[in-house]
UniProtKB/TrEMBL annotation:
PROSITE patterns referenced in this protein's UniProt entry, alphabetically: AA_TRNA_LIGASE_II
Name of the protein described by the UniProt record: Proline--tRNA ligase
SUPFAM superfamilies: Class II aaRS ABD-related (SSF52954), Class II aaRS and biotin synthetases (SSF55681), YbaK/ProRS associated domain (SSF55826)
Main localization (coarse): cytoplasm
Domains as described in the record: Consists of three domains: the N-terminal catalytic domain, the editing domain and the C-terminal anticodon-binding domain.
Protein family according to the UniProt entry: Belongs to the class-II aminoacyl-tRNA synthetase family. ProS type 1 subfamily.
Gene: proS
Subcellular localization: Cytoplasm
Function comment: Catalyzes the attachment of proline to tRNA(Pro) in a two-step reaction: proline is first activated by ATP to form Pro-AMP and then transferred to the acceptor end of tRNA(Pro). As ProRS can inadvertently accommodate and process non-cognate amino acids such as alanine and cysteine, to avoid such errors it has two additional distinct editing activities against alanine. One activity is designated as 'pretransfer' editing and involves the tRNA(Pro)-independent hydrolysis of activated Ala-AMP.
Organism this protein belongs to: Bifidobacterium apousia
Residues in Aminoacyl-transfer RNA synthetases class-II family profile domain copies: 38-499
EC nos: 6.1.1.15
Length: 604
C-alpha cells in the first residue's frame, strides 16, 4: 500500500533546542523537544502528529496481542455517575486521587481512574448464565487521576491512556487460565515494543490477598523498588518472603537468666550494658543481632458481622535488634487490616508492658491465661529461628533476659514478615543474595476474585440452576506510560532512537545543499519508498542548513537516515546510515530504495 511521506516543510512540528525548564526526566525532555507532545498543565499533555503516530503503533501492538487471546474491545465513557463507585466504596476510598464533579442539576460524577465497576455492571446487564462465560472485555481509554505529584512527563500523568481488560469466568480455574493468557500477551507485547521488563510478585502468599504480578520497566527514574534474585525472579518488597532459617539445637544452651541492665531502653545501650556487665564466655562481643526487640502495634480490623464499626487489636511483634521493622511489609501480613504504632493510651491499658523492657513472658501463648488485660497475640519475624537464644526484655525496669530460647522458654502465635529487607539477604528462591533496583510499573495482572461481583451483585446461573458469583480478573497496561518508557530506554544525548516497531517512520530522508539535483534525487527516492509502503519523514525544507537538518533527524529518532546531497551530485550516490551514525553505506540513487527496504527488514 502506498504511504504518504511526512514532509518537514509542512509537518506540524517545531523542534526545540533547549530542554523545557520543568521536564525532569529524559523522555519528558526529548518527547517535547522533538515535537511529539506539548505540555498543557502538570501531568496533562497534547499529542502532536509525530506523537500520535507512535501512540497508534503502541496501541496497535497491544490490540493485536489482546485480541489474539480472544478478548473483545468495548469503549466506556470517561465521565461516570457516582452510584456504582459508591456501591464499591471507591467513591471515598479513592480519596483525593479521584476527579469528582457535578452536573448542572447537582448530581455527582467522576472522571474514571479505572473501570472495574462499569465492566462488572455491563456483564451483569447482559449475561445471566454460565453458558455465556468465559468472556474477556477490554478498552483503550483515557483515565484521570489527580496524582499528588505528577512527574516524569507521561510516566505519571493526571490524564493518561490505559488498556484495561477484565475477565469473567464461572470458577477460579477459569480465572487462573484467563490470568495466564493475559500474562502471556503482556510478555509478547513488551517484547515487540522493545521494552525491557521484570515480572514482580506483587502480593504476599500466606496471609495476603489474591495473586497479582506487576510488570516493571527497570529504570533508575522509577518510583517502585523491587528485590531481584540472581535467578532473575523479582518481588515487591512487601511481597517478599524470608527463607525460613534452620532450627538451632539448644541442648547445650544454658538456662534462661534474668540480668541487671540499668538504663538500657534502646538496643545500643542494651548491647553496651551487656558487654560491660555480662561479657560473653566465648570471647566475642554482644551485638544488636543477639537481641530480640518486641514492638507493640495496633491492628485496625475492618468491619465484620460481629464488629460493624471494625475493631482494634494490639499485637506484639518480635524481631532481631539489628533490623528495623518495615511497617508496609508488616501491614501486608495483616491485610485487609491496617497497622499503626500503638499509642500511649494503648500501652497504658496494659500495665504488664514495661516500656523499653517488653519481653515474651507477658505476650502471646505465655499469657493465654491472662487475668485482666486483653490478650496480646505475639508474632515473631521470620528471621527468628526455632531454638535460637536471645537477649530480650524481662518486663521489669532495668531488667533483661539472656538465653531466652524460642521454643523452650517462649512460644509465638505465628511467624510474620516484619523486618526490612536488606541488600544481600538471601532470596526466597534460594538462588543467592537479593539486590534492589528501581522500576516503573507498566502493567499489572490481578486476580480480583469475587470482590466486585459480590459488591455489585454479578451472578450467573450455574449448571444446576443455582446463582453463583462470577470470578473476575483485571489487567492494566499504561499505554502512554509505556511509550515514555520506550523513549527512556531508547535515546542518547542527541535525541530519541525508536525501535522499528513504534518509530513514527522507518527512514528520515534528508536533502541538503542549495542545488536542485539533490532535491530531485531525494524526491525520486521518497516517491519510490512511498510506492513500496515505507513510512518516510522527508526533510524537504529548502532554506534550512544541513547541520540543522541532521540535528533534527537525530532528535526525532527514526531508525534509518538517507542523505541526498553533495555526493549525489558528484557521483550519483545516496548515503544510508543508522540513526546512531553506524553502518554508513553509499549506494547508487536508483538502488537506494531497495537497500533501505532490506535494511528495514534487518532492523530490531
Ligand atoms: P502507580 O503505582 O504507578 O500509581 P497503579 O498501580 O496505581 O500505578 P493501576 O491502577 O495498576 O496503577 O493502573 C494500571 C496501569 O496504568 C499501571 O500499571 C500503569 O502502567 C498505568 N498508570 C497508572 N497510573 C498512571 C499515571 N498516573 N500516569 C500514567 N500511567 C499510569
Ligand atoms: Mg498497579
Amino acid at each position: 500500500m502506498r504511504t504518504k511521506a511526512m514532509r518537514m516543510s509542512t509537518l506540524f512540528l517545531r523542534t526545540l533546542r533547549e530542554d523545557p525548564a520543568d521536564a525532569d526526566v529524559d523522555s519528558a525532555k526529548l518527547l517535547q523537544r522533538a515535537g511529539y507532545v506539548r505540555k498543557v498543565a502538570p501531568g496533562i499533555f497534547t499529542w502532536l502528529p509525530l506523537g500520535l503516530k507512535v501512540l497508534d503503533k503502541v496501541q496497535a501492538v497491544v490490540r493485536e496481542e489482546i485480541n489474539s487471546i480472544g478478548a473483545q474491545e468495548v469503549h466506556f465513557p470517561a465521565l461516570l455517575p457516582r452510584e456504582p463507585y459508591e456501591a464499591t466504596h471507591r467513591w471515598e476510598e479513592y480519596g483525593e486521587n479521584l476527579f469528582r464533579l457535578q452536573d448542572r442539576h447537582g448530581a455527582d460524577y467522576l472522571l474514571a481512574p479505572t473501570h472495574e465497576e462499569m465492566f462488572t455492571l455491563l456483564v451483569k446487564d447482559m449475561y445471566s448464565s454460565y453458558k455465556d462465560l468465559p468472556v474477556v472485555l477490554y478498552q483503550i481509554q483515557t483515565k484521570y487521576r489527580d496524582e499528588f505529584r505528577p512527574r516524569a512527563g507521561l510516566i505519571r500523568g493526571r490524564e493518561f491512556i490505559m488498556k484495561d481488560a477484565y475477565s469473567f469466568t464461572v470458577d477460579e480455574e477459569g480465572l487462573k487460565k484467563a490470568y495466564q493468557d493475559e500474562r502471556g500477551a503482556y510478555e509478547r507485547i513488551f517484547k515487540r515494543l522493545g521494552v525491557k521488563y521484570v515480572i514482580v510478585h506483587a502480593v504476599s502468599g500466606p496471609m495476603g490477598g489474591s495473586e497479582s504480578e506487576e510488570f516493571l520497566a527497570p529504570l533508575p527514574i522509577g518510583e517502585d523498588t523491587f528485590a531481584l534474585a540472581p535467578s532473575g525472579k523479582a518481588w515487591n518488597v512487601e511481597a517478599l518472603t524470608t527463607p525460613r532459617p534452620e532450627p538451632v539445637d539448644y541442648a547445650e544452651t544454658p538456662a534462661m537468666q534474668e540480668l541487671d541492665t540499668p538504663d538500657s531502653t534502646t538496643i545500643d545501650t542494651l548491647v553496651e550494658r551487656f558487654n560491660q556487665l555480662h561479657p560473653r564466655e566465648d570471647g566475642r562481643d554482644w551485638t544488636a543481632a543477639d537481641t530480640l526487640k518486641n514492638l507493640i502495634v495496633a491492628v485496625k480490623h475492618p468491619a465484620d458481622d460481629d464488629h460493624p464499626e471494625g475493631w482494634r487489636e494490639l499485637v506484639a511483634v518480635g524481631l532481631p535488634g539489628d533490623r528495623q521493622v518495615d511497617m508496609k511489609r508488616l501491614e501486608a501480613q495483616f491485610a485487609p487490616a491496617e497497622i499503626e504504632e500503638a499509642s500511649e493510651a494503648d500501652l497504658a491499658a496494659h500495665p504488664e508492658l514495661v516500656k523499653g523492657y517488653i519481653g515474651p513472658r507477658v505476650l502471646g501463648p505465655q499469657r493465654s491465661d491472662t487475668e485482666s488485660a486483653a490478650h496480646i497475640r505475639y508474632f515473631l519475624d521470620a528471621h527468628v529461628a526455632p531454638g535460637s537464644a536471645w537477649v530480650t526484655g524481662a518486663d521489669a525496669q532495668g531488667m533483661h533476659l539472656a538465653n531466652a530460647v524460642y521454643g523452650r522458654d517462649f512460644q509465638s502465635d505465628g511467624v510474620v514478615e516484619a523486618a526490612e529487607v536488606r541488600h544481600g539477604d538471601m532470596s526466597p528462591d534460594g538462588s543467592g543474595p537479593l539486590s534492589f533496583e528501581r522500576g516503573v510499573e507498566i502493567g499489572q495482572v490481578f486476580q480480583l476474585g469475587l470482590k466486585y461481583s459480590d459488591a455489585l451483585g454479578l451472578k450467573v446461573l450455574d449448571r444446576n440452576g443455582k446463582a453463583v458469583p462470577v470470578w473476575m480478573g483485571c489487567y492494566g497496561i499504561g499505554i502512554s506510560r509505556v511509550l515514555a518508557c520506550i523513549a527512556e530506554m531508547h535515546h542518547d544525548d542527541k535525541g530519541l532512537a525508536w525501535p522499528k516497531a513504534v518509530a513514527p517512520a522507518a527512514v528520515h530522508v534528508v536533502a541538503t545543499g542549495k542545488k536542485q539535483e539533490a532535491f530531485d534525487a531525494a524526491e525520486k527516492l521518497v516517491a519510490d519508498l512511498e510506492d513500496r509502503g515505507v513510512e518516510v519523514i522527508y526533510d524537504d525544507r529548502p532554506k534550512v542548513s544541513p547541520g540543522v537538518k541532521f540535528k533534527d533527524a537525530e532528535l526525532i529518532g527514526v531508525p534509518l537516515v538517507a542523505i541526498a546531497g553533495r555526493d549525489t551530485i558528484a557521483n550519483g550516490t545516496i548515503e544510508i546510515r543508522n540513526r546512531d551514525g553506524s553502518d554508513v553505506q553509499a549506494v547508487p540513487a536508483d538502488q537506494a530504495a531497495q537497500v533501505i527496504v532490506d535494511r528495514i527488514a534487518d532492523l530490531q
